[in-house]
Specification:
The complex is a heterotrimer of chains A (324), B (299) and C (552). Chain A folds into 2 domains: 45 residues, no CATH class; 236 residues, MetI-like fold (Orthogonal Bundle), CATH 1.10.3720.10. Chain A contains 16 helices and no strands. The longest helix of chain A has 32 residues. With 299 residues, chain B is mostly helical. Chain B folds into 2 domains: 55 residues; 235 residues, MetI-like (MetI-like fold, Orthogonal Bundle). Chain B starts with a helix and ends with a helix. Chain C is α+β, with helices and mostly antiparallel strands. Chain C has 2 domains: 185 residues, D-Maltodextrin-Binding Protein, domain 2, CATH 3.40.190; 250 residues, D-Maltodextrin-Binding Protein, domain 2 (3-Layer(aba) Sandwich). Chain C is built from 20 helices and 15 strands. Classes of the chains: A mainly alpha (324), B mainly alpha (299), C alpha+beta (552). The interface between A and B is large, with 111 and 114 residues.
Amino acid sequence: MKKKTSQGTNAAVAVPYKKRSSLFKSLWNSRTLMLMCLPAIIFFIVFNYCPLPGIWIAFTNYNFRGGIFGSPFCGLDNFEFLINSGELWLLTRNTILYNLAFIVLGNIFQIVIALMLNEIRNKWFKKVSQTVMFLPYFISVVLIGAIAFNILNYDTGALNTLIRETGGDPLQIYSQAGIWPFIIFFCNMWQQTGYGSVVYFAAICGIDSSMVEAAEVDGATSWQRIRHIILPSLKGTFIILLLFALGGIMRGNFGLFWNLTGGVNSQLFETTDIIETFVYRTMTTQNNFSTSSAVGLYQSLFGFVLVMISNWVVKRIDPDYALF
Amino acid sequence: MNKNKIKLDPSTKLLKIISYAVVTLWSVICIFPFVLVISASFSTESIISREGFGLLPKGFTLSAYEWVFRYPKMILGSYGVTIAMTVLGTALGLFIIAMTGYALQRKDFPLRNVISFFIYFTTLFSAGMVPTYLWVSGTLGLKGSYLAVFLQLLMSPWLIVLMKNFAKSVPYEITESGKIDGAGDFRIFLSLIFPMLKPALATVGLFLALGYWNEWYQSSLYLGSSVTYKPLQYYLYGIINQANALKSSVAGANVTITDLPTNTLKMATAVVATGPIIFLYPFVQKYFISGITVGAVKG
Amino acid sequence: MRKTNTRKRAIALVMASMMAMSLAGCGGGNDDANKGSSSNSGSTATSTSTSTGGEIDTSSHEVINMLVLGNRPTNGRLEAMLEQLNAILNEKVNAELEYTYVEWTDWQTQYNLQLLSGDTSLDLICTATDWLYGWENVIKGAFMPLTEDMLQTYAPNTYAQVTEDDDWEICKYDGDIYFIPEDNYIQYTNHGMFYRGDWAAEAGIPDGTITEFEQLTTYFQWIKDNQPDCIPWDVPGKNNTAGILGGYLTSKTDYTLFNGVGVGNYTDFWGVMQSDPGTVVSPYMESDALYDAAELMKEWNDMGVWREDVLNFDGDSREEMYAGTSGADQHHAQTYYSSIVPNMEAKQPGSDPKFYYWGMENQNVAHPLKLHQACAISANSQHPERALMVYDLLRTDEECYRLLNYGIEGEDYVVTDDGKLARPDGWDQSTDALDSNFWLGRNDDLELQDSTWWDGTQDFIANLNSIGYDYPFENFIIDTASIESKQAALANVLSKYIPQLAYGKFDDPRAAIDDMREELKAAGYDEVKASIQEDLDAFVAEHGEVQFVRGE
């Protein structure tokens, strides 16, 4: 405490100009807050900003002798294959549509589950169901692919076995591109809902309980409580999640798509191929570090522009919810 | 009295019934494949590759588990490494994230937007695998060190922003009351705010712990074969992938393949990897209590 | 209001300049590190080339680090072996050997990252021109050029043997030697189909021996009709998307592929016809045999040779063959004589396992590649001379060789009375394996014949030796960098068509092939072909007309 005041006066002496002094003064007054942010700032400088100049690799023909900055510059050659493939539109469309579905519908479902969990008063039931809903998150995508195959495949799949036993015609799921968007969406929900709803559930728990109590005293029904108290208070969380997800809208969950569709079954490409799976498949035997960096840059730029615009819009409407 | 009234309200009752039904249904959907996994892990490889999985083991055998636990010392060591990293990483990461998140939502902190952007920016642009690898393993010299994995998972922009958002819901009056008492910002954070953030700490802590528990990617880049005890998921990932890599003819290498139970092995690793962490959730869950009331602050 | 704005701007400026400084600082460091390592490697290389003749100075103790592929063993056998081996190495050349494993988990990425990291501790590196990007890594500067002087001085025994076999020429790029080839080790990795002789005989195939591709149809049909619990060939199409189209092309045409210029997953796309060895061609584009192959595969698919969802199946047809639930399995010769025969004889007695290899009917079989594996010295090695000395001992000194490859005699292996390799009682491959994976220079002069392998192995190899030809493109180096993006475009087209052609999923395979060829053309087939043709012309100009020399 003593230290603080003595240093405070020193700083004031050192900065004679009024305008500056107010700037530095407010900075000085928040120095503890700055120090509190310092570990995180150092972390991001060391692990995220320092390697960033290496993005240059996307414009080089990399070799071991020259390293990132000594390898020959090759302009946009590394981007060429993506553009020349003629698939760029299809890949971009698939990637964005899937992500939009995951973001919008996925979040809505997570909110619904969180709300319902909040309605449940039986502690034992609540605990067990929440734990159970968390299980899928632990199963690696390799296994999800294996499980899906074991349920859906034509010859031995559980689904087709059931259909055969009931006298129906078995389904050839692995050669019908049309149903895969639903399967992929479902699997993504299956894996993410338990995990994602925790955020909303915690947000509901964070709501000022006096408000809820007051509403109860006023005789509000559960529906009214949800509409007028809970949902509005989840808005902030939802928007932040949305803005975060938008930054990655051009990035797909490679593991999920690759493992579910098998990655090589070209009968399904039309509706299941995304940028990541395409790059992996076509570049797999090429010992090339630059191309993947180039693709990453394309995805980053797209996400960056999208986020800057959405953040600007959000800030216009309600600055409280903006990310920065 | 009030409670009784609410219970009698038909729409509320309906909502409760729907809630129980939907949650039950979704729980069943979530657990069903897991039952398949467990039963497959106890099945005989050749039978399930012919007939597919079932709800009960087909040709009961422990051979997949024998493979997983072939070197008990290795898997116990892996558990040790992962548990140590998870506990330490979650504790340290949670503290830093909470501190940063709290500072960034303070309206009287002039740098809050600048720093927020500084942190958020890293999610948009990353250097990519190769430059990051060269930097961390070469310049920082962390190749082959657990630190490379431990440090990189310590925090993420997403968790900081999440924490910041949670901290917003703590009424500013609390900070103010601390100030009136003459406490510094750090003191206010530590003794007043930190205890109020329980649901947030539970959420972020859970995510951090899961991040450490599920981690295999950074380990594969920075640890490779250079440590004796690999983090658990990487060790198991290795078992799964070894089976895949050796079985596929892609590797032109001549590798003598022993009898690996491929499919059942994958399933057994899933059971082994998931088992212990399942118990974490109920433990964390008790912090999800609606707690913050303005009244409590004033009183 | 304005005040706060300018303040914000000022702060942002400060932050921005801080960021910029930190970036510049970090970037600079990165750059220096790279330059440092590259200039470093240059100087060591020159210093070694001048220090020839005279007594070799081994006064300082060095640790030689060897990069191999494989899973690091955890049973302690490797360490026990290394202790004994290092005692010898220490005494003879004042050095010790250390292992770095690139594990099978994501090995392609891992291998390249190991080279990428510019690690100065690596010395000996396992490489290969067909499956470990050998020439590409030479071009990218990952390996140290070796002079004949250097090899003669520090690895005299190896030098003598390779010189005797006249194999240095195939290891050169721009006049410098980059690889020490594993050229004195016979390992046939030509692919084909394993099947059961007993069933083939019952199917009415003469002598129960398949000698033509079409007989496979007869064999599969018989299984379909007579073995209800057995899928004729339960192939995991997910891991093998090209199926056996390539095998068909090999067996029906005189096609020879180029290594190291794979198009996506399809590594046999580019090559030449032996009748016209100066002209680059792709049978996938230009041969009519592809129509026949695709139609045969459609016939097989309709027959039910594999399961309906073959392209998503990643099971293990070999295990299934052992268990009697798959009638065939596809892999290479060494798998046949080292695993298939002993396993089938034990698990399916009387099954008479046989091997129909691609090119059997038209004798289109190449001798093993000499650069299927090789040793290279890391460009960043701090003591390449000592590394060569250690390598020479490992490859040519009997005591070191046996220790390294088989372990400690009596504990890890025993030698039978007739001089073959056997294992002590109670030894179990799955828990006691040494896994030293010295694929950098195995040596048939010191190899022990494995007593568990098929007895007919030697005759089988002798037969292949007599009908095979020497692969003439060992040191044909293709400039892959300039065709990369076009190759990726071709790969995209292939990945759409080939899996469905290979497993007969198109209703009209002919029309599908025509579509595919049109798309390949549009994706730049001709440009890539012209570029490779240029490389081939240069290769011919330098080394003379390409010839296929048959026999031993």
